[in-house]
Predict the 3D structure of the following.
Amino acid sequence: MPTELTINEIYSSIQGESTWAGLPCVFVRLTGCDLRCTYCDTEYAFYQGKSMSLEEILRTVNKCGTPLVEITGGEPLLQKNVHVLLKQLADEGKTVLLETSGAHDISRCDPRVIRIVDIKCPSSRMARHNRWENIEHLRSKDEVKFVIGNREDFDWSVEVVQRYELTRRCPVLFSAVSEVLPLVTLAEWVRSCGLAVRLQPQLHKILWGTSVSI
């Protein structure tokens, strides 16, 4: 049987987050998510989408002519065939980023894929879904992201970073919940905390407004 995935959208833009921010990037957004974070800005990806063959997806991505590709969602790891897509993109020489909620096993991913793993903070109301076993699978090229909505989230994130020595494993990103926590406030907390964590502005929202998600 041909490999198919349910795709919400494929588009070319500027990478707005992670250490890859600022680079041209093709985004492949898969449909479906099993979490319901309080700050979610991609609710349209929960159900909307169409079935596409692997060949169709690759053809659409290659038309964009960009070597950096991010697989996102929703939650892309909910679709088992995503691993076939990840491998094929890597085989074609793409730099492949996988954005995942951190609630699912990342160990099955092709080793060439760069995993950007969320750790859900308390204000998301999804922290109970964090798959802590994923931390043991992190490599230096992967990244961990905390989306922070208040001081409780920040203090909780600092404790997690220290407990698991995350900055020794890979880059750690602290992002503010848009329109809830001022970025300048988070910047001051990051400056004062003494950890080698990276403040992550959402470049796409600076460029195109808060309604834009990547």
Notes: The mean pLDDT is 96.
